[in-house]
Design a protein that fits this description.
This protein is of the alpha+beta class and 142 residues long. It has two domains: 32 residues, no CATH class; 96 residues, GMP Synthetase, Chain A, domain 3 (2-Layer Sandwich). It has four helices and six strands. The longest helix is centred in the middle third of the chain and has 23 residues.
């Protein structure tokens, strides 16, 4: 089975340090910092990478569910919003909200919703993150 990797390097103290994250396949490398994670600073953060992974995985899972049901999609576009909140215990990811739009000719809206929910449950990233609430808004276009 496939094993995927990424790596990160951090330099310095938590608040004034900086780092770089890199995808193992070489498709992306970028900076991150305390400001990019907990404030609105430049760079990325682990939560954005989780969001990207979830959006990509869900889009593929929905395409697969639609195809298995005999409805080949023209397109599936998904945004994942990872909610990072602070409590007395520290920072935690408390929720992930998926927003997806799909163009699928000839598909009934009710059937689309069922297939979108099945994709949410079956997506490997959703399954890996099942300790977190995952919500979904799915819109059928065209």
């Amino acid at each position: 089975m496939a094993v995927r990797s990424a790596d990160a390097r951090w330099n310095g103290k938590l608040k004034d340090g900086n780092g770089t994250m890199r995808m193992g396949g070489g498709g992306w490398e970028g900076p991150y910092s305390f400001a990019s994670r907990f404030e609105e600073g430049q760079g990325t953060n682990p939560e954005e990478l989780i969001a990207a992974a979830h959006a990509g995985c869900f889009s593929m899972a929905l395409s697969g569910e639609l195809g298995k049901a005999g409805h080949d999609p023209k397109s599936v576009a998904t945004t994942a919003k990872v909610h990072l909140n602070k409590s007395d215990a520290g920072f935690s990811i408390t929720r992930i909200h998926l927003e997806t739009q799909a163009e699928v000719p000839g598909l009934d809206a009710g059937e689309f919703q069922k297939l979108a929910e099945a994709a949410k449950k079956g997506c490997p990233v959703s399954r890996a993150l099942q300790a977190v609430e995952i919500t979904l808004d799915a819109t059928l276009q065209g």
